[in-house]
């Protein structure tokens, strides 16, 4: 497994496993504490694992947490997703930077997203399973959502959004979230 920095988002990494394929399919390690540690992250910091299943066109996000934020490892374990990260850390050298990825069950790439970054994704296949590993227990009172179609972000979502939560449909603009964050 190798780790590669994401230039658009300071402190973000892609972890690329080495699959072993044969006539049965493939096997690969999707988490390696030594590789995570090698880029300065604490592998023991992750306290919860979650899984979402989405159908083609479902859009989830853009989400982040207030307070101390939430760092996470994200991987598409089955299917394909278009994944988005937006750096909202005012003190970051990549503040307001955006990065887009295609994560898939074929590659098993894992994306590390630092606390203070917004995250969202869209399912590109009929079924897409997305795994999350987060570094703090989830507290719904700290949930923050930003409009997926905010023109300031101009995210090039590949498909029309076929379904999303009410919270995501009614999310405020980036400017509104930043204004609230500063007050």
Mean of the pLDDT scores?
A: 95
Round the Cα radius of gyration to an integer and report it. Answer: 16 Å
Shape: globular
- The strand line-up of the biggest sheet is 1-2-10-7-12-5
H-E order: EEEEHEEEEEEEEEHH
Q: β content, as a range?
A: 35-45%
Helix content: 10-25%
For the secondary structure, the number of strands is 13
Walk me through the structure:
The protein contains three helices and 13 strands. The strands form three sheets. The protein has a six-stranded antiparallel sheet with strand order 1-2-10-7-12-5, with no helix packed on it. It has a five-stranded antiparallel sheet with strand order 9-8-11-6-13, with no helix packed on it. Strands 3-4 form a two-stranded antiparallel ribbon. The protein is globular. The mean pLDDT is 95. It is mainly beta. The N and C termini lie far apart (42 Å). β3 (20-22) and β4 form a beta hairpin.
Give a brief outline of the structure.
The chain is mainly beta. It has 3 helices and 13 strands; from the N terminus they run ββββαβββββββββαα. The strands form 3 sheets. The chain has a 6-stranded antiparallel beta sheet, with no helix packed on it. Strands 9-8-11-6-13 form a 5-stranded antiparallel beta sheet, with no helix packed on it.
């Amino acid at each position: 497994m190798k780790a590669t920095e994401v230039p658009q988002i300071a402190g973000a990494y892609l972890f690329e496993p080495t699959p072993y394929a044969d006539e049965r399919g493939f096997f690969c390690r999707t988490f390696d504490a030594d590789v995570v540690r090698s880029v300065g992250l604490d592998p023991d910091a992750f306290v919860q694992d979650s899984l979402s299943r989405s159908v083609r066109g479902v859009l989830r996000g853009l989400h982040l947490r207030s307070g101390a934020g939430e760092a996470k490892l994200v991987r598409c374990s089955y299917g394909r997703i278009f994944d988005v990260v937006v750096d909202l850390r005012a003190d970051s050298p990549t503040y307001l930077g955006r990065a887009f990825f295609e994560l898939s069950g074929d590659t098993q790439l894992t994306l590390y997203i630092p606390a203070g970054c917004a995250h969202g994704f869209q399912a590109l296949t009929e079924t897409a399973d997305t795994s999350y590993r987060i570094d703090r227990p989830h507290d719904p009172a700290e949930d923050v959502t930003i409009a997926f179609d905010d023109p300031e972000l101009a995210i090039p979502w590949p498909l029309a959004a076929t379904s999303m939560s009410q919270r995501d449909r009614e999310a405020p603009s980036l400017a509104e979230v930043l204004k609230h964050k500063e007050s």
